């Protein structure tokens, strides 16, 4: 029997990264290309151009597959990817145009204009590969954690992945599969309201978790304390527009009081989010992923202190820890989605 | 082919109610008995006595089944029921003792002492019925809604049921099945924190949704406004210990300002809960079930107003409505669990 391989594809705003992955989560080959490169330097970037680059990249990986193996699935993690439709819809950071649509329709229907049917096109191009699926980055990360990361040591396939970055994403795994919801938009833990009448959020609401516990939220908390307290801080010397969550981390590690207060506030809000996620789906573990987790105990200590307060007493056997996915996390997440797609075909 | 029937059993603190249910959700026969009746009037109630009463009741229903039908499954809804273990564990309102356990074990292990393995015993007694399962009341109500209530008109099998009563329970259906979580305790929406440092809750935490949006919470809000505002109200004439959510409903319907304020506050907190449930699992519909829903628009109007504020803009196609389950809701919920157990056997 041939060794089963999958291809994991991560569509980022800057680069598209692909890898050939075995069942143990080893990345046997990698390739990448610019996501929004046009054949015409000055012109708009068309979706069909992107797909040609993607086909070529996949073919490079297929050529790299060892003789005794077979690529059985392709998984794609992409912003605003709709699992049911296999399409990327209205992704703010992807400015592809779809020239296959008549211009009247483009103007008339925002969704149709911006609907990029990646899965349908890949199935057409690679008919031998039956299992092809796409979901958003956070869901892919959750499945990556399940199959290749911290989920491997869990007794049950129930976990939550919280991805901290510019935004705050999340993926909920129940009984081995993602909770997609009726329209594939589930897992928006970043947009639960943790502070009624609080900070404005990109989604249009106020007081969302994302506005507090993402890298951007951490930055906003720091600026807020700089503006509204007299606490001395090394962060006051950093140019306002350049202040980042990483700066807050470095300052806090050096004992800066204001920076430590920022992490305390971040831990408070993140604990509300983790406690809520746990009350709703009661996972065996909640994994935190992304840049701000590099702060380590600066984040984890206040988080655990507030979890003791906010987590329902009989839920406290849910473990909360940092992700065990390494550098290839995005590729592994997409590859893990392919594993689930292969399993779904066998059902 | 014989007509498929199921038996739905609702274990309440006072009565155990059973019904014989067809695929369309018609209850063909019913029976009931006191849940905590001992054969010895003054003695403790033993679990094995309870099971004898349950066996008899099930046999009565089996005898009632029409000739051209077959009972293929039994579902049980019970407080603190653990789906995975098929057992009722530490239910506060059920005071059964289990005399099959040696007393040392009883003292040594609280869980074992109070673990009533209903499913195992029923399988032993009724070996011809292969699909037997048990879950808590809110999960059963969610499945009842799915198979026999408002869920019938949904496109996808994704819904949330919120049960309002003395407490606030919830059941999350994703892709046709309950999200049970790693230890069967998922769906505790009543214990998300909506008011840090808020009211004390029976779970040991503070500020839980249940402390505000249950019938008990509504009563507490009314008493709080009576004590801490000067607003005139007909509710002030009711004896403090006897004031109920129903009184608040009657007063509000008559235009009582304080009572209307209570519903506004209730709507605010419930909206936080519904918006959170939606952000996490993105169901096609959220159904509200239980006594306080009889308040109708008094509850629904403020709820919808606050949902416009708290629900993430791209989640607003999730419908929020009252349950479509009628009088036999508890029996139908348990019967629906049996339907899922039958389907699981066929997988």
What does this structure look like?
Two copies of one chain form a homodimer. With 347 residues, chain A is of the alpha/beta class. Chain A folds into two domains: 3-147 and 328-346, Nucleotidyltransferase, domain 5 (2-Layer Sandwich); 156-322, 2-Layer Sandwich (Nucleotidyltransferase, domain 5), CATH 3.30.420.40. Chain A is 38% helix and 20% strand. The first copy, chain A, is built from eleven helices and 13 strands. In chain A, strand 9 and strand 10 (168-174) form a beta hairpin. In chain A, helix 8 (245-253) packs across helix 9 (257-281). At the A-B interface, strand 10 and helix 9 of A face helix 9 of B.
Write the layout of secondary structure elements.
The structure is a homodimer of 347-residue chains.
Chain A lengths: L2 E9 L3 E8 L4 E8 L12 H18 L4 E9 L3 E2 L4 E3 L13 H6 L1 H4 L1 E2 L1 H8 L5 E5 L1 H12 L10 E6 L3 E7 L2 E2 L31 H4 L1 H14 L16 H9 L3 H25 L3 E5 L7 H14 L8 E4 L6 H18 L1
Parallel strand pairs in A: 1-4, 4-8, 9-12, 12-13
Antiparallel strand pairs in A: 1-2, 2-3, 5-6, 6-7, 9-10, 10-11
Helix pairs in contact in A: 5-11, 7-9, 8-9, 9-10
What is the total tally of β strands of chain A? 13
Dominant shape of chain A: globular
Tally of distinct domains of chain A = 2
Ranges of chain A where pLDDT stays below 50 over 5 or more residues in a row are 103-112
Q: What is the straight-line distance between the termini of chain A? A: 20 Å
CATH superfamily of the largest domain in chain A: ATPase, nucleotide binding domain
The helix-strand sequence of chain A is EEEHEEEHHEHEHEEEHHHHEHEH
Describe the biggest sheet of chain A? 5 strands, mixed
Please tell me the CATH architecture of the largest domain in chain A by its name.
Answer: 2-Layer Sandwich
Task: Tell me roughly what share of residues is in helical segments of chain A.
Answer: 25-40%
The amount of beta strand of chain A, in percent, is 15-25%
Q: What is the CATH third-level topology name of the largest domain in chain A?
A: Nucleotidyltransferase, domain 5
Oligomeric state of the chains in view: homodimer
Which pair of protein chains has the largest interface, and what are the residue counts? A-B, 50 and 49 residues
